[in-house]
Amino acid sequence: MSGMSRNKGKAGERELAALLTSITGQTIKRRVRQHDGDDDLMGLEGWSIECKRYATAKPAQIAGWWAQAVNQASVSQLTPVLFYRANSRPWRAVWLPACTAQTSYQFTIEADPLAWWLMEGTQLNGQVPEPIKGSQDAQEREV
């Protein structure tokens, strides 16, 4: 892997950590010293987070990244979630619905990170997420 690719990956991890911190209210940090099988980000109990930041994100690439996320999660016995972002595109989340024991990519759900958190994040830690500042839900609660 070239130095530019590593730097892009590190920058992507920091960017995603900030996004997930704002969505979840948890302090999400980049794992500085990563070894094979380690999660890319830490701080979200119950989840094994895999982060990918590439120029493109084709279905075959995403399926490979998903397989990596599942393998990594099995080592730590956590629930896998993959976040990826292609150039000039928003972040996407890939995860398994709570109702399936399958781990194959074909059984995953893909959506934006906020949808992932609203659908799945609260089931693992029992919290109700606070609305994101500036969202319609946040404005309605302030009234």
Strand content: 15-25%
What's the total count of β strands? 6
Biggest sheet, spatial arrangement of strands: 3-4-5-6
Characterize the main sheet: 4 strands, mixed
- Rg (CA only): 15 Å
pLDDT averaged residue by residue: 83
Q: Note the run of SSEs as H and E.
A: HEEEHEEEHH
Shape: globular
Q: Helicity range of the residues? A: 40-55%
SS-derived structural category? alpha+beta
Describe this structure in words.
The strands form two sheets. The protein has a four-stranded mixed β-sheet. Strands 1-2 form a two-stranded antiparallel ribbon. Strand 4 and strand 5 form a beta hairpin. Residues 134-141 have low confidence and may be disordered. It contains four helices and six strands; from the N terminus they run H-E-E-E-H-E-E-E-H-H. By secondary structure, the protein is an alpha+beta fold. The chain has helices at 3-24, 59-76, 113-125, 136-142; strands at 29-30, 41-42, 47-54, 79-86, 92-95, 109-111.
Please give a quick description of this structure.
This protein is an alpha+beta fold and 143 residues long. It has helices at residues 3-24, 59-76, 113-125, 136-142, and strands spanning 29-30, 41-42, 47-54, 79-86, 92-95, 109-111. A 4-stranded mixed beta sheet has the order 3-4-5-6. A two-stranded antiparallel ribbon has the order 1-2.
Provide the descriptors you would attach to this structure in a database record.
143 residues, two-stranded antiparallel sheet, disordered C terminus, alpha+beta, four-stranded mixed beta sheet, 6 strands
